[in-house]
Amino acid sequence: MDRRVSGLTIRQATLADIPRAAEIFLDARLLAYSPIFSETIIRETSAPDLPKWPALVERNPPAFFLAETEAGVQGLLLIEERRLDSLHVDPASHGLGIGRALFEFARDLIGPGMDLVCLVGNDRAKRFYEKAGLRNAGIIDQATGSVVNKGYRFVYDG
After folding, report:
1. How many C-beta atoms lie closer than 10 Å to residue 155's C-beta?
2. Using the 8-state DSSP alphabet, how is residue 48 labeled?
3. 132 DSSP assignment
4. 141 has which bridge partners?
5. pTM as predicted
6. Which of 94, 104, 109, 116 sits at a 20 to 30 Å CA gap from 127?
């Protein structure tokens, strides 16, 4: 059975989207980062009332995008200058091509030189970016709040 999603739209986020985006952000990060961070840290850095959310909505050029289907918002993409900062899909929608569509949108928007950091231990994401053809440029330190972890730096060469 083909589970690929049809009718996917990628659009800029609005203030009204923050609760759903934060929910996806939390659920996806709990799945991906549980071996790396405590649940408390994941929840504290994903809360919908954090000032980062409205700041991302209001940023110019746009930096906060959502993947939406008939079922509603299913994924999010955060961009920081030339870096793909976060790409998360509702775990219930994994395998439908939403992550791939968000990645391709970011790649087309940012272009060659786009980079991202995938934390060591987030094996599913590492495989995703390798399969997407990004070059692994080595391991770097990645700060998340006051915690520093190792991460793979991936680069899109074009």
Report:
1. 16
2. T
3. T
4. 150
5. 0.92
6. 109
